[in-house]
Design a protein that fits this description.
There is one protein chain. This protein is an all-alpha fold. The protein has one domain: Histone, subunit A. Helices cover about 70% and strands about 0% of the residues. It has three helices and no strands. Helix 1 crosses helix 2. About 5% of the residues are buried.
């Protein structure tokens, strides 16, 4: 699942936020968590979309799924 989120940008983000040295396993753990969270949010948003009898997942669906999350 984590093949969808690139490792390097996450590492740069962590460094940009003050992490001087970042272990590979720390980045991998964050990438895995982000992937799982994105999958859960997408499934919730898709449920909301289907409930509204639509096919397109919208920004509002994602925002509402975040509120439930």
């Amino acid at each position: 699942m984590s093949e969808y989120i690139s490792w390097s940008p996450i590492r740069r983000l962590m460094k940009h936020n003050g992490a001087v040295i970042v272990a590979r396993d720390a980045v991998n753990e964050l990438v895995d968590w982000m992937s799982r969270s994105a999958e859960k949010l997408t499934k919730t948003a898709l449920t909301l979309t289907k409930h509204s009898k639509r096919k397109k997942v919208t920004r509002d669906d994602i925002l509402l799924a975040i509120k439930y999350f």
